Amino acid sequence: MAKYLLLKHYRGGPAAVNDVPMDRWTPEEISAHMQYMHDFAARLEGTGEFVDGQALAPEGTWVRYDGEGRPPVTDGPFAETKDLIAGWMVIDVDSYERAIELAGELSAAPGAGGKPIHEWLEVRPFLTAPPTITE
pLDDT of 20-51, one tens digit each? Predict the structure, then answer.
């Protein structure tokens, strides 16, 4: 089993086919989208492939270390930033092909007009330890 992070970009990735921003969806369209996400996660929980997932608020702050005894440096929030991650899901699957299959299915979540968004999702494998060489 391998873990993968599925990133849902609200902005910053390639444009979706149904590229109507969520702030222009009706309450019913938002509810249908959220229900699809919930049902998808529940199905993966049933197969043991779901690890975790969360939607993210558009606001965020960049933080970095600025030296011993000094407060962290912050910059933000940047809701208007070029790249905005709307949410993420961690899956634990048998293969890269399965991760791609699930990401494709998740991409079909409904959006404006109840039509699939066909959004681009970023699929990132978790970094694993390099194999140990034994002689």
Answer: 888 899 999 999 999 999 999 999 999 999 99
Q: Going by C-beta distance under 8 Å and a sequence separation of 6 or more, which residues neighbour residue 39?
A: none
This prediction's pTM:
0.81
CATH label of the domain that carries residue 45: 3.30.70.1060
* Residues 71-83 as b or e (16 or more Cβ within 10 Å = b): eeeeeeeeeeeee
Measured at the alpha carbon of residue 84, what is the angle toward residues 5 and 2, in degrees to the nearest 5? 5
Provide the number of structural domains found in the chain.
1
pLDDT of residue 78: 54
Give the residue numbers spanning the domain of 62.
Answer: 2-125
